[in-house]
Fold these 2 entries.
Entry 1:
Amino acid sequence: ERRVAQIRTKFDGFVDTLYVNFTGQAVRRGDPLLAVYSPDLLATQNDLIIAERDRSDLGRSLADAARARLRLWDMSAADIDRVARSGKPMRDVILRSPVTGFVIMKNATAGARVMPSDTLYEVADLTHVWVLADVYESELPYMRVSGTAQVTVGNKTLPARITFIGPVIAAQTRTASVRLELDNAAGLLKPDMYVDVILQEPAASVIAVPESAVMNTGTRSVVFIARGNGAFEPRQVATGGRANGFYEIRSGVQPGERVVVDANFLVDSESRLKSALSQMR
């Protein structure tokens, strides 16, 4: 958003010539985009020429006022000086790109009338871009502004940085929008492209158990602690993040405790488990 420029006129006129003819064309700052004929600008240029010939104080004041009007209408200082020096008005005013980038929208048509409310072009600098990632609400506690991330496009992985975490959760997807910023000098990332994002959290020592050790009942998560002699203690736990086949355990299990991890064993020991689970009610 901060690197998109909209090109409009500040006067009524007619498009005489298009120098940029299609969406996606690369432009540099100062490149001509289109030439516009405006009766108002032509009249003001004539006022400038007449005032420049008058060496009186009034003539200088009128010339300064005409220059100011032309500058407010985005006529370049070089073009204004050329008109004053040559004594010949320019029929067309050339509008130039204010930034280096790519044309992402083109509404200008040769011969069409234009008004200040018309957006003729949008030019975007795509060397530094945003990526919007949808993150589940359960994972938001791990997100922090200035945190690092990786964006994968094709077989390329690009480093990124978290710059904004959306304050609203989408009701249907239960996700929030997390904005990443990254350099795109090679132009690999295009507007509206889908990419894969890996959000990275600084490494920390936590209690973790294999995914197969956690039984999710729909209302709670349970693990079974081996007490020896074939006895098992069901333990309700609070799980955190999941990565590489492991769950983070935030509460419910102490370091060093033995946790049953073989799901097949749990199925074979169904009768023992039912007895143990009944003690939790």
Entry 2:
Amino acid sequence: MMTSPLVQTDWLQDHLTDTDLRIIEIRGKVLPPTEPPPHYLSDRAGYEAAHIPGAVYVDWQVDIVEPGSPSNDIASPARFSALMQALGVSGRSRVVIADDAGGMFATRLRWALRYYGHEAVQILDGGWTKWIAEGRTTSADIPQYPRGGFQARANPRLIATAEDILQSLADGGMQLIDTRSPGEFSGVASRAKHVGHIPTAINLPRSVLVADDLTLKPADELRLVMEGSNIDLNAEDCVLYCNSGVSATYGMLAMEVLGAKNLRIYDGSWKDWGSDPATPKAR
């Protein structure tokens, strides 16, 4: 039974040959909004050159995104199911995800799997970066697994929409957390047409949750961060957002580690909200 959303490199090294284990690598990076585009980059070539033995690859910009979505929304149930089946994922699979971006791509995929009904999924703490820093085994072999039986069944308790947030701004009761940079939160920069943040939102930059070795900070440090930001870990409804629902899932992970419940992701995030001239914005 899994008791944590995280696994450590020692554990993974010891379980590489488990038949029910599927390791997924999801590599790439995000450039600051002040840099010239493109800002979102994948790294399939890096995976093909060397990866954790037995790991398969997912392109975070293409494979788990609904084609044509301006805010990079999560892929449809049919599209997501087809991807997981092709990777050999079934209902009984234990999925471990690793990235090289400080965890945020991995947590995005973890959220997607949980949203579509698969709870047996964990993050490799420190990811590919920590794995190679420790000199662990790598491979260039591309594994092939029998087609899996994964079937997506959406869980609406893990997702929020702009309409949900607009209603909460009128009625109250929702804690909003923005995991973008302070500059984006304050309106100095933006990846959408408009600048600023959603009214009442609390800024919790993902960078304050990550340790120097790209692992999640220890629980006692995370708790101090939450307290310093006046974040209520016992909120009855907490919605996290970023630019397109990626770094927000890392904030969700940190809050889960501290025991928070009732957490949702605004999938469209600022690319949705900040592109709509009718939505209220604060600076």
